[in-house]
Design goal:
Layout: E1 16-22, H1 28-41, E2 46-51, E3 61-63, E4 69-71, E5 73-75, H2 80-84, E6 91-94, H3 104-113, E7 117-123, H4 135-141, E8 144-148, E9 150-151, E10 158-159, E11 161-166, E12 169-170, E13 184-189
Parallel strand pairs: 1-7, 1-8, 2-5, 2-6, 6-7
Antiparallel strand pairs: 3-4, 9-10, 11-12, 11-13
Bound molecules: zinc ion.
Zinc ion (ZN) binds near residues 152, 154, 157, 192 and 193.
Length: about 210
């Protein structure tokens, strides 16, 4: 990643959308928080939103695996972002954006059209390796995209996928995204070591 990219601009001349994506453990939230710290130093007015269903660290902050945190507002619908937006806000960050409804794309566009710098982070793929929520559309609408890599827990190479484990074995393709009972965990994996048993072959048969 460039050290002196767009995120260092002090004067906001027009709105834009920045997407920071990648698998779990790729440092997405840490990168967003780094940009927000710099925006604060540049005296920008920052607001952070996150979906209320993400209960990992409570509703009042966004926290990276590396330990950084930032005050955040939990919203149950992306339309609440407009209701809660302060008049002087110049930077809006949205964490875990893949969990919002499809309308999140229009919300981000409208914010950017109002001159706001919009920074969103989220998973680009679910545990099956399929595109996650509205992320594909956000990636195409964004001015700036950074896809971060994690480290594969099997080979130590670059990892772009999230391996879901249930009771110590790879989660099956058809298993629900939200699990009731059982113990689940996640690991970063490369393409070669990402396992999704029971995945149907969707290629045309000859
Ligand atoms: Zn690997």
């Amino acid at each position: 990643m460039k050290a002196n990219g767009f995120e260092d601009t002090i004067h906001v001349v027009s709105g834009s959308i920045e997407v920071v994506t990648g698998s779990m453990f790729s440092g997405k939230t840490e990168e967003m928080l780094r940009r927000l710290r710099r925006a604060r130093i540049a005296r920008q007015q920052v607001q952070v939103f996150k979906p209320k269903l993400d209960l990992r660290y409570g509703h009042d902050k966004v926290k990276s695996h590396a330990g950084s945190e930032f005050k955040a507002i939990g919203v149950s619908s992306c339309s609440e972002i407009f209701d809660l937006l302060n008049p002087g806000t110049t930077v809006v960050a949205i964490d875990e954006v893949q969990f919002f409804e499809p309308e999140i794309v229009e919300v981000c566009d409208r914010l950017a059209e109002q001159g706001i710098r919009v920074i969103v982070t989220g998973l680009d793929q679910d545990f099956r390796g399929a595109p996650f929520g509205s992320m594909p559309l956000l990636l195409s609408r964004a001015e700036h995209v950074d896809k971060l890599q994690a480290i594969c827990m099997v080979c130590g190479g670059s990892a772009s996928r999230t391996q879901r484990m249930i009771d110590g074995r790879p989660a099956f393709y058809e298993e629900p995204t939200v699990l009731v009972g059982g113990s689940e965990s996640y690991e970063a994996r490369c393409r070669e070591h990402h396992e999704v048993p029971h995945q149907l072959n969707t290629l045309p048969q000859d």
